[in-house]
Structures are given as C-alpha cells and as structure tokens.
From TrEMBL:
The keyword Hydrolase applies. This is Hydrolase. It comes from the Bacteria. It comes from Streptomyces corchorusii (Streptomyces chibaensis). SUPFAM superfamilies: alpha/beta-Hydrolases. Pfam families: Abhydrolase_11 (PF20408).
Length: 215
C-alpha cells in the first residue's frame, strides 16, 4: 500500500503527563484526522494503522495520539475525566497545522472525542468501536455521549461487538457503518466469509467516503 506520508513523532506535555502524537502527514493536506486508542491497547490497533496507511493519499493527515498513561507504560487507563484532560491539552498541537481537525478514537478514545468535540471546535467525530455499554450490561448505556457530540459523527462498529452491536444503537444524528462479524477490535473469525483484509477495507472505505461528504 502506497504510504504518501511523512511520519514524525511529537511529544506534548499535558496536565496528565506527556502525550505523544505520531503524525502521518499528507503531502497536500486539507484536513487532520486525530485518533486516539482505547483503554486496552495503543496506536498499533489494526484500524488505526489502516487509516494512517490509506488516508494521507487523500490529503488527510492522520495524527495518532497516545494518551499519557500509555506513554508512561501503564497498563490501566485512568478515569474518563483524566482522558478528557489529556485530549484537551493535546488539541492545540493538533490544530497547529491550521487545518480543520476531525476528532476521533477507538473505544474509550471515541468516548473522549464525543465528550469534547463541541467544546474544542472539532470539525467532526469518528467513533471506532464506540463502547455503547459495558459487555453484558446494556442498561448502562453511554448513548448520551454519542448523541451529545454536536458535530457530524461517523460510528464504525463491529457486527459482533460485545460493547454494543449496531442494532443496539439508538436513532440519532450520526452515521453508522457495520463491519460484518467484527468484534470490538474489528477482528473477524477465520470461518467468516469476510477476510480480515476486507474488514479493514470496509473501515477505510467508509471513513474516506464520509470525510469526502463533509465538504
């Protein structure tokens, strides 16, 4: 896959410790997509890697953001409030190139993006594997965070995500794309008629199409 991007790393001091941005800078960038990881993994997640590899060719710079707890080598994410603080502190660096910024993330990172989008002036929100509820606890819904984003929002959700299957999502002012058979990390079982490569193509294709529609 052609990688039409310069890759650089930037450390950003925040009130929660040092965060790190890995920039995949497009040659003639018109937008920045800033995405953070979930509570159980880092920016090596398959969906984040796929977006960083494909979007720069479309003029979209991808900024992969590592929250301070990951940079510090901790195994457990801090409270949502601390994650929001880290994201707010990184935001000025993300807007540094002077381009509109799409605020995004996977899982816990998607929640942060939704909670802070309106206040930070995000152009839009990309929610990858939005954790609608804890596994097995549909009554503990986080739909209000998603519905309260206040900007154009795309949700990309695995068909078998225990944190919320696509059919469980409420009606609302967001677009939802399903990755058939995908789990919370968009892994698909070997027996599925869908290959892992195709699952990632669905994600990158949906994100590219949505970004193009934002104008």
């Amino acid at each position: 896959m052609a990688h039409a991007a310069d890759v650089t790393s930037q450390t950003v001091a925040t009130e929660a410790g040092d965060a790190r941005i890995t920039w995949h800078t497009a040659k003639e960038a018109r937008l920045v997509l800033a995405v953070s990881h979930g509570a159980g993994g880092g920016i090596e997640a398959r969906d984040l890697r796929a977006l960083a590899a494909t979007l720069p060719a479309d003029g979209v710079t991808v900024a992969l953001v590592e929250q301070p707890w990951r940079v510090a080598g901790k195994k457990v994410a801090p409270a949502p409030k601390t994650l929001d603080t880290g994201w707010r502190c990184v935001w000025p660096a993300l807007t540094g190139p002077g381009l509109p910024v799409i605020s995004g993330g996977r899982s816990a990172g998607a929640r942060v993006a939704c909670r802070t989008a309106a206040e930070l002036g995000a152009h839009a929100v990309l929610a990858l594997g939005f954790p609608l509820h804890p596994p097995g606890k549909p009554e503990k819904s986080r739909a209000d965070e998603l519905l309260g984003a206040g900007v154009p929002t795309l949700v990309v959700q695995g068909g078998n995500d225990p944190f919320g299957k696509p059919a469980e999502f409420p009606e609302g002012d967001f677009r939802l794309i399903e990755v058939p058979h995908g789990d919370h990390g968009f892994a698909v079982p070997k027996r599925a008629e869908l290959t892992q490569e195709r699952a990632l193509e669905i994600i990158t294709g949906a994100v590219r199409e949505w970004i193009a529609s934002l104008g």
